[in-house]
Amino acid sequence: MIDFKNVSKVYDNGTKALSNVNIHIDKGEFVFVVGASGAGKSTFLKLMMREEVPSSGSITIKDYNLGEMKKRKIPYFRRNLGIVFQDFRLIPNMTVYDNVAFAMRVIGAREKAIRKRVPYVINIVGLSQKARCYPNELSGGEQQRVALARALVNNADIIIADEPTGNVDPQMSLEIVELLKRLNETGTTVIMVTHAHDLVRRFDNRVIVLDGGAIVSDGAVDNSGISISPVTHLNVEKTETFENRITQRFVSKPQEAPSEAPASNENPDEDFLNAIVSDNETYRVYVEDDEKTAASAENTEGGDAQ
Fold this sequence. Notes:
Elements: E1 2-10, E2 16-25, E3 30-34, H1 41-48, E4 56-61, E5 64-65, H2 74-78, E6 81-84, H3 96-105, H4 111-124, H5 140-152, E7 158-162, H6 170-185, E8 189-194, H7 197-200, E9 206-211, E10 214-220, H8 245-249, H9 269-276, H10 290-301
Parallel strand pairs: 3-8, 3-9, 6-7, 7-8
Antiparallel strand pairs: 1-2, 1-4, 4-5, 9-10
Helix pairs in contact: 3-4, 3-5, 4-5
């Protein structure tokens, strides 16, 4: 599903971020990517999200060759990704329900589908009772779960979690990773980037270690002797029979949508992206209006330019 072949990345200022990286990640894997600051984790993420292209080598994700991808195709590729950020990037003047619903509205989903799916996903992350709350009324762990729900709501095949436990307490960190693991059990590919080695050692998963832009270790870690505290507030269950794509993954009972949740008639792209892109980061939640983005690319590059 994900292939890095001899990938190196050198920035214009001469910084060598990655050097001859070779990684293969199968569909349905759960992989930790760890390393100290400056090890290359951020560049690895940017390449996966097609924020950057490699200086050499090739990257293939779900049959998309990212190095050769035309700009107009990028939004369609990014629909396969759900991104969870360390700093949450919730829209402060929107409720939990509307923060999650916004991810569907900006890709043109019908309001009927939004009203059905959003409560379902909010219930998965254990926040049904907080659907009408605003971000400033939630704890850090609850905000992170809203961010996770937003990443899940468009049913992405790949979840990329960028330091998702960096701003929460140790117990909530365990809950977030356990939730990601339960999602992974239903077939979702999960890649979690972190510097929290102690947390990683609590789970028996494949761990890729980056140091100085190179892979210094790649393999499973046997942690059978480490005890893990009980985790609560998780509503994901694995099922063997699937009715449709959203109920395939989750067996939580859907809740009724908040009655006051209005249909959105505005064009939310600019406000949404401004709200979730920080001043010093280039990451964003990739739930753009594909048709508008594609049309813009056609106009600016004649439809064929790289």
